[in-house]
Structure formats: C-alpha cells, structure tokens
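Please annotate this fold before class:
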Amino acid sequence: MSAVTRFAPSPTGFLHIGGARTALFSYLVAKNLGGKFLLRIEDTDRERSTQEAVDAIFEGMEWLGLKSDFDSVYQTQRFDRYKEVIAQMLAAGTAYYCYATREELDAMRAEQMARKEKPRYDGRWRPEAGKTLPEPPAGVPPVVRFRNPVEGEVVLDDLIKGPIVFANTELDDLIIARADGVPTYNFCVVVDDWDMGITHVIRGDDHVNNTPRQINILKALGAEPPAYAHVSMILGADGAKLSKRHGALGVMEYRAMGFLPEALLNYLVRLGWSHGDQELFTRQEMIEKFDLSKVSSSAARFDMEKAYWVNHQYLKSVDPEVVVPEFEWHLRRMGLDPANGPSLVDVILSQRERCRTLLEMAEKSHFLYADLSGYNEKDAAKHFNADGLHALAGLYKTLKALGTWDAPTLHAAVNGFAEAEKLGLGKVAQPLRVAIVGMAVSPPIDQTLALLGRERTLARLDAAVAWARSRASA
C-alpha cells in the first residue's frame, strides 16, 4: 500500500510555525514515497475549537501550498463511527464502563500521592476473572475505558528518536468516551488513522507518551499500527522556549511580514533536517531529498535573521512572475492599485537586490503607485539647496527634451547633464531622487526614472522646484 500521511491540527488557535513544519514534514514524506497527504481537523474539544481557527488553518495551508489529496476531515462529523467502534470494543471486552465519580477519582489520586505513588486509575471497575463488580450506582453516567494490557511492553521504533520502550504496567486504563458520550482525543485519533489508512504519523514529540496507548488500542482492534516519527520542538535562537519575540507567530503573520511561501517552507525544512551543506531547495528538491532518518532528535533553533536571509535569496533568484501575486497582495494591502503604475515584474527586478522582504519592497515602491505626500525633511533640507534647485531645473529641461524614455537613454542624459554642469553625479542624482521618490534612497536613478515614466517624473520635478522655492522664500 502506498504511503498516506496526515496533518491533524486542533482548531484552538492559528496555524503556528511549529505546526507548519510538522505539516511540511508530513507532506514531504507522502510525496517522497509517491503517496498522499491528508488534512484532518481534530475538533473534538468543542469548548476551545473555533471556526475562526479552522479558517486560519485552511488559509495558512493554502498559502503554503500544502494541499490535501483528500477532502478535509472533521472529527465532529465522525461521531457515529466512533460510537460504533466503542460498541464493538465493549462487546469484545477490550473496553468497559467505569462508574467512578469525580470525587472518588480525586480521593484515589490524593491517597496515591500521599503514598508517593504515581497517580493513576486503580482499575476498580475493570472486569477481571473471579472479580465481582458492584451494582452500577443509580444516576451516575459511566465513562468508557480501554482495557489496557497489564503485561508486556510497547516498543515504539520511532523513525526519528529510535526505539522507545514503555511497560504496560505504567499505562492505566484510558478513558475513550466521556460520561456525555463524547469520544476522547486519543481514541478518535486511533480510529481515524485506522480508517484512513495512515501509514506514517509525523507529529511533535509532545505526543510521545500518547503513542503507546494508541498502539495498544490499534492492536486491540486488530489493526496494524502506522510508523511513528516524533519531531523535536523548536527553540528560540537563545535556546529558550520559542515565543513571539523569537518568531513563534501564525503562518499568515509571516505573509504580512513579506515572506514568500516557498522561502518560508525552505527555512522550515532546514529546522532539524539537512542534506549536506545545501541551504536552498526548490519544492521538488525537498520532495526528492527529504528523509526522516536525517531529521535530528535534538531541538531545532529558530533564527529570524536566517529566515530573512533565505527569503532574500528567493526574492533575488526566482522567476519574478512567481513573486508577482504576493507583491500585488502587499500593494493592495497598502491601499495601492497595481494598475496605477509600472509593470510589477519590472519593479521586482529593480528592487529585489536591496529588499529582504516583499513588505519592504512594497514600502519602497509606494512612490511608483501613488502621488507623493511630501518629502523626507532631512533629505529635502540637505539636497534642496541652491545647487540642488539649479540641478533640478536643468534636469527638467534636459529630460523633457528626450525623445526616448528608457533606462539607457536616461542614464546617458543624467550623466551628460552632470558632466556638462561640472557636478559630481551625487549632486545631481540625489536631489533628483528626493524630488521624484520623496527620499534620497531608490533603485539606480535611471531605473527609477524609467519605472516612474515621463509624465510623472516631469510633474514631480516641477513640483519639487516650486516647493523648494516656496520654502526658501518663506
């Protein structure tokens, strides 16, 4: 049977960066083995699950391009199936009703802790040969517990951590259905993985202690357990628990920060996995080269500066057409109409060497899609002096006389004007930048003029001269 993996988040919050890495690893394992990838929403926690979180998970997965090969599954839509399996287990004797009250269980655990024992269910309602159970108390709705084996051990051959052994005597009888009939997380996961033919379970190592219980339930159902791989946590660059200051953000916050989805995936795949010294991977290369056996069992460290570096490498090297949709998204988010300016591809090509993110690129390209709202005070004071005004007035005449408006022609015109006036290029280009961009920073001046276009350039030059003269006379 071909591989089937799943990403199964609980919709109690946004898709965070750790969840995105787990989803990516699951996706890559499936694709590397020629199999399929499933998105499953584990929403049995009705109090904490929200539609907003469900929507955020789908939005993040779509943006990252981690598409499910099946219709997405919701656990709350499978309650009839869970109840069917529980009924089968009750009939087979692998599950039983437990009528212990909350007060009884609290007292039991308090006594165990007083004796310095590990708190655990004592099996008081567990059926055993020769054991007489009391009559079920009236008015007490029972939970259903799994009848865990009391002998032997569970050997988890973890694909990342290696063999881990759990003694069955350390595992008490897990509740698989609450008193209100709602099945519990550990049980639903088992039935889902069984029904959906999941062959590999890749998840965070906070689930390690759940795994032996789930394996025992699968065996009780006569099912073959999948292979398990538990991914270590992500720490901050300083070794502390990952927090927002380190980069523990929702995936869509990275979009707002100006990351390309492929760049973010590239950074995430390298958190705990490597392929020699290679740093940058296409999606196809990730699929072809990813191997769980090469994933480290040690915690990875999230380095925001490295994430920015990876994003910049992508911006500089990928086909600009790939960047266009994301760049357009940022411009529109700033209230700009991409149709009200130059080609997005041309702007990307001119800006990508100096911009680490698309947000930075959009901010630095604002002047191309909207009228100037003013000038940087410091730059205007420095460059709109008498020499600057003289240069701007002369440039206006020089540029207006051009018959062709492209970067080579503009380059020759600006340089020729500087030579004719015996001025350094900086004393010409910098006032020109402030006049047309609003500040003294922009792509090369010939590219900037070509992108802005003849009419806007001349209008802004004229306006800058008028503004500077009015300030001088005030």
User: Anything to note?
Assistant: The two ends are 82 Å apart (CA to CA). The chain has a mean pLDDT of 94. Residues 251-368 form a domain with the Glutamyl-tRNA Synthetase; domain 2 fold (CATH 1.10.1160.10).
